[in-house]
Amino acid sequence: MNPVRILTGQRKINMENSNGVKIFRWFAGAIILTTLFSVIIIKPIPFLFYPDLPYMGFTGRALYIIILASFLTLYRIWKGPTGADRIVATEILGIMIVGLCSVLTVSTGRSWYIDIGIAWALQSFISTLALSKYLEGRDFDE
Amino acid sequence: MSDIIGIVFISIGLAFDFLGCLGLVRLPDVYNRLQASTKSVTVGTCSILFGTFLVVGFTSAGIKALLCIIFLVLTSPVSAHAIARGAHRAGVKLCEKSVVDKYKEDKEGEA
């Protein structure tokens, strides 16, 4: 595809009522419903956690909410009509992964997960600044 | 006691995160999506990190969680502003129902 068309979102075909968009909408709705019901129904992943720690059930279910909400940002990265949408969704995904590492710190009791979170926050900030400069149409060293 | 308060903070943060991602999917425009998702996801993740600090306590992981809160609060508005400025300069249009575009009026006034 032409990269200019990807960046500015100009498409020749009207995509609103086609079959693919309908499938995408069903996908997003299924993710939202699964998120709402996963708190009650699904049990936490057993091999990720020490069963001795307190609040294991709560943090195990919290992981499901974060992971499924990250799938919503992946939907926006996949479908998003302009390049700016994709950059926004990437930044949101980075911040969500910091929260995921924080919840993993609570649920497993291993303190090095929060180190991954700090490193991911740094990397996400710098990459977002570089991508927005690229979107604006300037060079990186300007 | 601080464990329970930390769990409450983590729950509030999860609600903010999920609603921010829902706004990212549902809203019609790049600028609306920025407005909905960036702030609420930042607040939600900071709340999760603060709850982690309350559960873990004054260990090395707790201090690192506080540092990560400070870093996120400092950097997230900067990146959101950079994305919005880049998108407006690249010519991404507003949605059809939007009323006013002050940034465009300012640029026309300068030129």
Topology diagram in text:
The complex is a heterodimer of chains A (142) and B (111).
Chain A: H1 3-8, H2 19-38, H3 56-79, H4 83-108, H5 113-136
Chain B: H1 2-26, H2 30-56, H3 60-90, H4 102-110
Helix pairs in contact in B: 1-2, 2-3
Shape of chain B: elongated
Figure out the total of helices of chain A.
5
Q: Strand portion of chain B, in percent?
A: under 5%
Could you say which structural class the secondary elements and strand pairing of chain B correspond to? mainly alpha
User: Which two chains form the greatest contact, residue counts included?
Assistant: A-B, 51 and 52 residues
Quick tags:
heterodimer, A: 142 residues, mainly alpha, 5 helices, flat, B: 111 residues, elongated
Explain what this protein looks like in three dimensions.
- The complex is a heterodimer of chains A (142) and B (111).
- Chain A has one domain (15-136).
- In chain A, 70% of the residues lie in helices and 0% in strands.
- Chain A contains five helices and no strands.
- The radius of gyration of chain A is 19 Å and the shape is flat.
- The two termini of chain A are 28 Å apart.
- In chain A, 33% of the residues are buried.
- The mean pLDDT of chain A is 76.
- Chain B is mostly helical.
- Chain B has one domain.
- Chain B contains four helices and no strands.
- The mean pLDDT of chain B is 87.
- At the A-B interface, α2, α3, α4 and α5 of A face α1, α2 and α3 of B.
